[in-house]
Amino acid sequence: MYGSFYGWYLKCQSDTQTLAVIPAVHNTGRKRTCSIQIITDNNAWTVTFTADVFQRTKRNIFIGENQFGKDGIHLAIHTSQLTIKGKLEFGSLCPLKYDIMGPFALVPFMECRHSVWSMRHSVRGNVYINGEKYSFHNAWGYWEGDQGRSFPKEYIWTQCCFSGGALMLSVADIPMAGIHFTGVIGAILWQGKEYRIATYLGAKVVQIQNNMVRVIQGNLELEVQLLEASECLLKAPAKGDMVRTIHESASCRAFYRFCKKDCTLFAFETDRASFEFEYLS
Q1: Eight-state DSSP code of residue 177
Q2: β-bridge partners, 277
Q3: pLDDT tens string 132-189
């Protein structure tokens, strides 16, 4: 029997601090559990719960006393190694115009389906992690989700909120009907306009090397490069079981360049990028 998983990724970031939270439920076919992963600029924790404390509606996930959704995050975790308490409130969400998966959202039996719930929203509040205060005022948030059986065997994912916009890009090995292809999904918000880059719109990866990816789609070109990682170890699903280890830099140094018709719309280096580079380049 195939396993399955469903999870959200909610990232909150100020000028000096980063907090990402991943509530998820996982089913191996024999056992069902749920978990909350906590990622900061330089640390990560995984807390596992029994499946009976997990509840999900369209707008909220509940795991025990912890709540996640469009209005924000409420955390109340106490274990021998981790004590977290706090509340973060979200401003108006910024969803995409249509499903990031495009027509692939209708394809059955996909290994992993991605969702983007909000490209950028304001975050306000405080969270205490083992006594350390994480304060978010005039901060930004990002919210996405995944569901399926397993994370892709190889993939690159990056996300960044920046002055005037936000972006996310995922490049992954996609198995389908006995073949494999390199799939691309990405979205860029820039000065009030949404740009979509995706395989189903003709996007092609023209370069993957030295922690850099370059994607071209018609007259659009996006280049992303991981310059300096700050990796923490996270758990990821393999056939529903959280046994795979991946490496996420929740806040790291990266370079982004976005062009249209040979005109550079933006090009900048930042130390507030998020990156996972699980690709053999």
Answers
A1: T
A2: 156
A3: 999 999 899 999 999 999 998 999 999 999 999 999 999 999 887 778 889 999 999 9
For 75, the enclosing helix (H) or strand (E) is strand 72-78
DSSP 230-266: --EEEEEEETTEEEEEEEEEEEEEEEEEEEETTEEEE
Inter-residue contact 73 to 88 (CB < 8 Å): yes
Inter-residue long-range contacts of 51-57, CB under 8 Å, 24+ positions, other chains counted: 51/25, 54/25, 56/6, 56/25
**pTM score above 0.90:** yes
* Cα distances (angstroms) measured from residue 70 to each of 10, 23, 111, 229: 10, 14, 26, 30
For residue 151, how many C-alpha atoms fall within 13 Å in the half-sphere facing its CB? 24
Helix (H, G, I), strand (E, B) or coil at 61: strand
The candidate with the shortest Cα–Cα distance to 89, out of 119, 126, 116, is 126
Q: Which of 110, 55, 45 is nearest to 79 (CA)?
A: 45
- The SS3 of residue 79 is coil
